[in-house]
Amino acid sequence: MDTIKQEGFRLQDYDYELPQELIAQDPLSKRDSSRLMVVDRRTGAVKHKIFHDILDYLHEGDCLVINNTKVIPARLMGTKEETGATIEVLLLKRRQDNVWETLVKPGKKAKPGAVISFGDGLLRGRVVDVVEEGNRLIQFEYEGIFEEILDQLGQMPLPPYITHRLEDKKRYQTVYAKHDGSAAAPTAGLHFTKELLRQIQEKGVAIASVTLHVGLGTFRPVKVDNILEHHMHSEFYQIEEEDAALINETKQRGGRVISVGTTSTRTLESVADADGFLKAGSGWTDIFIYPGYSFKCVDALITNFHLPQSTLLMLVSAFSDREKILAAYQEAVKERYRFFSFGDAMLIV
Q1: Domains identified in the chain and CATH numbers
Q2: Buried b (16+ CB within 10 A) or exposed e, 258-270
Q3: Residues facing 226 on adjacent strands
Q4: CB 186 within 8 A of CB 263
Q5: Which of 250, 260, 247, 244 is closest to 192 using CA atoms?
Q6: CA angle 63, 273, 174 (to 5 degrees)
Q7: Which of 55, 251, 308, 314 is buried deepest, with most CB atoms within 10 A?
Q8: Crossing angle of helices 322-334/311-319, nearest 10°?
């Protein structure tokens, strides 16, 4: 049988109706006051809670795995030196020290050789090549420290469905963000406060960190009818020795590994062996998780509500069951949950 005819492999199998007004435009004033839908992955049974109630679902001996990547203010507005034309540059990934792969709008004004000035020449970039999907490689020139200049000139690269201006840059950053490199936030982590993390540890729950620098592939729509033909973009990950040991000890004791977000999940599942154990290290992953995938390491998942027809919705469907997840999403729409990056959360156990 042609796989495209099998339920679960068609793009349309991951569609749902979402009223525009349910797309959260602003973060709540208190991170852990968002709503939490708890879903039993086997039965599909749903409970409605507040995010702080996550404490009731984490038990002594469990290990919570967070992604400590830090979003860089990757959106730069500049002018083409030759013509004065306005050009927007979005940093995607660092290729070498001063060379970045970028998304440029309008691309036709950024041919190889073009020089773009940012902040009255505080930062200058020369387009050196055009690579896959029209992305530009730009070599930057500056005096001082690149990260400091970026912090001064750059804006947070909010997803295209957020139209409101973000008043506080820190609200598109987790409280445990540590390593610069993401073009998007690992949004499931935005609900945690330092106080809530302290309470979680006091319950005897270990907290381990992984790093996965989130690329804009997160927001790229799937453009093929048969999802098996979709190609994921690769993202850089790193797991330190002590964190791998913490996760492995939890597995050995029979505790649960609870992943915060699809990015932590993809990292763990990329690295885990057949028994769910990890080796420390770093590399690039383009793992694509969709129904039929057997999870090796992750036992429970904290995540936000994802876009229709997205690879993230496919991953969540793989962790539970496509029909159960879509039923939970219907329930969330009915109950007026807030969706996407600044929206509410789901715990799948």
Answers
A1: 3-71+168-348 (3.40.1780.10), 75-153 (2.40.10.240)
A2: bbbbbbbbbbbbb
A3: 10
A4: yes
A5: 260
A6: 40
A7: 314
A8: 110
Can you give the chain as a three-state secondary structure string? CCHHHCCCCEHHHHCCCCCHHHECCCCCCCHHHCEEEEECCCCCCEEEEEHHHHHHHCCCCCEEEEECEEECCCEEEEEECCCCCEEEEEEEEECCCCEEEEEEECHHHCCCCCEEEECCCCEEEEEEEECHHHCEEEEEEECCCHHHHHHHHCECCCCCCCCCCCCCHHHHCCCCCCEEEECCCCHHHHHCCHHHHHHHHHCCCEEEEEEECCCHHHCCCCCCCEHHHCCCCCEEEEECHHHHHHHHHHHHHCCCEEEEHHHHHHHHHHHCCCCCCCCCEEEEECCCCCCCCCCCCCCEEEEECCCCCCHHHHHHHHHCCHHHHHHHHHHHHHCCCCECCCCCEEEEC
**Cα 238 to Cα 240: distance, rounded to the nearest angstrom:** 7
CB 236 within 8 A of CB 94: no
Please tell me the distance from the alpha carbon of residue 324 to that of residue 299, in angstroms, as a whole number.
17
User: How is residue 338 written in tokens?
Assistant: 């807030």
